[in-house]
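Lay summary

Proteins are chains of building blocks that fold into shapes. Our project writes down both the chain and a compact code for its shape. Here are two examples, one after the other.
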Amino acid sequence: MVFARSPAGSAAPLLNYWTKEDATIYFKGCEALDGNPYDGKGLPEFLARLQGKAEAFEWESLFQINNRDLLTNYAELTAAQVQTAAMVYQVANDR
């Protein structure tokens, strides 16, 4: 069987890709954001759309770095802090 933890965190249930419901959740999460693709302009609007999807799929914990929300407090985080958080997430045992 193929299982994966949803990106929402350890409190989220495992997704079983063999079930229609969980496969649908996965594919919906992979869909492009509503609206035009990000073109380097309108960062606040793009991040608001991303935050809406994060809330819908319970991904908020992914964007918490040093007790700050990357999507709303991005100017308060350095690129190094974001890169470090991404590396920690990637090497976590349950990812």
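And here is the second example, written the same way.
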Amino acid sequence: MGDDHVFPNIGHSTVISWPIRAASDTKSARAALALVAWLYLYTSVSRTVLFWAAFILTRPLGATMGDLLDKPVNHGGFALGRFQGSAVVAAGIVVL
């Protein structure tokens, strides 16, 4: 089964260009998180606002990590399943 089932309403050329868009989205997310960090360090912007900004910006990272750990190996994942994937994430949190 091809990638078309993932994006049923988008043309094939868009699906093929997805990794390029993902790379530019990653740069945008990094820049936004860097801005939040800069605002935290050098301004008096509300810490609550900065927390929620960082929380919203990092949500996709957690979802992507979960998908990567749960996805079958033949689709580029690690096929760990939810419980094993959760254990890996928990271990990473403890280590960091």
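What can we say about the second shape? Confidence is low (pLDDT under 50) at residues 3-18.
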